[in-house]
Write a structure and sequence with these properties.
Length: 88
C-alpha cells in the first residue's frame, strides 16, 4: 500500500472505532437502560452494511463522472479496481 495513504487510513480507522465505542457506551434504550450487547452487535452490523453501501455509491458516482469525460479511462479504472478487490 502507498505509504502516503497509510497514515490517514489508520487515523480514519481509529476515529471510526472511537465513534463506534462511544455510541455503544452511550446508547440507551427507550427506558433509560444501557443498550444490551445484542443491540450493540446489531448496531455494528447495520453500520457495516451502511458503510459498504456508501462506499459503493461513492465509487459508482466517481467512475460515472470519469466516464463522462473519458470512457476508456473509466473502464481501465474499473478493471483495475476489480482486480484489486478480487472480482476478476
Amino acid at each position: 500500500m502507498n505509504k502516503e495513504m497509510s497514515k490517514p487510513l489508520k487515523q480514519a480507522a481509529i476515529l471510526l472505532g472511537a465513534v463506534i465505542i462511544l455510541i455503544g457506551c452511550l446508547g440507551t434504550a427507550s427506558n433509560g437502560v444501557t443498550a444490551s450487547p445484542f443491540q450493540f452487535i446489531l448496531f455494528l452490523f447495520g453500520l457495516a452494511i451502511g458503510l459498504a453501501i456508501a462506499i459503493t455509491a461513492i465509487t459508482g458516482i466517481f467512475l460515472a463522472s470519469i466516464a463522462m469525460s473519458d470512457k476508456k479511462v473509466a473502464g481501465e479504472m474499473w478493471n483495475s479496481l476489480k482486480s484489486k478487490i478480487g472480482l476478476g
